[in-house]
Amino acid sequence: MATNALKEVITTVEQNENSDDAYQRLYGHQIKPCDFRRWFTKIKSAKACAEIDEEASAAIAGYVNEGMTIEEAFAQHCPDYVGPGEFAVALNRYRRSQAATAAQ
After folding, report:
1. What predicted TM-score, i.e. pTM, was given to this entire model?
2. Coil, strand or helix: which one is 9?
């Protein structure tokens, strides 16, 4: 995800909000990399995956036909993906900077 967009999203987290709850609230809708890997593998081997809609299936089939790796395909399919670790680091940095500003 673009660093600026993550920085903007981080500012919406309440000071006392649990970071896991905040991540789920803000990014729970994302496709998980493990799910995408499973779908990619099913489409690559069986040419079909009943777990996803036709549009996503067609997109993944296109990545397979282009010879993309799973990692390349995921980056193409979910360019704005924010992982829980990336979110936690950004949130901790933001909270530390806010605490330092308040202490001045």
Report:
1. 0.82
2. helix
